[in-house]
Write a structure and sequence with these properties.
With about 150 residues, the chain is an alpha/beta fold. It has 5 helices and 5 strands.
């Protein structure tokens, strides 16, 4: 079990540079010390999680913020790969995407996403999401430890 006083480590899987900047800024603004590790596509996300190649020294994140529409390996494929991997399946995955399609919401939960959040339009709403994610995953939920 991770001590609740430690900062969260989050793998951010997002291909849109503007959204990456907004998300990084939103979490920095909370002042809770959360560290985000951005990657641009699903293949890099899986290499990060499996500590392969350039990510050989990467630690296991506490949770994943995952966009659905990604190049090379989309978010649905990443989610399925994480939840079917015996070493990764306990890792909480929050889908953070622009899609409001009910099909995407249902598919994400069928693939065992822990949460589905639609990206907001304004910066202040991104701040609220960052605060809510940190508040819940750092102070309420008990996260799994590395095996």
């Amino acid at each position: 079990m991770k001590p609740q006083s430690e900062a969260l480590e989050i793998l951010l899987v997002e291909d849109n540079p503007a959204d990456v900047d907004l998300i990084l800024e939103s979490f920095a603004e909370t002042g809770n010390g959360t560290r985000l590790h951005p990657v641009r596509d699903g293949e890099d996300a899986m290499r990060f999680l499996r500590q392969e190649g350039e990510y050989g020294e990467a630690g296991r994140p506490d949770l994943v913020l995952l966009d659905l529409n990604l190049p090379r390996m989309d978010g649905r494929e990443v989610l399925e790969a994480i939840k079917s991997d015996p070493e990764l399946k306990v890792l909480p995955v929050i889908v953070l995407t622009s899609s409001q399609a009910q099909k995407d919401i249902n598919t994400s939960y069928e693939l065992h996403a822990n949460c589905y959040i639609t990206k907001p339009l304004g910066l202040s709403q991104f701040y609220r999401i960052a605060e809510a994610v940190e508040g819940f995953w750092q102070h309420v939920a008990v996260l799994p430890s590395e095996r």
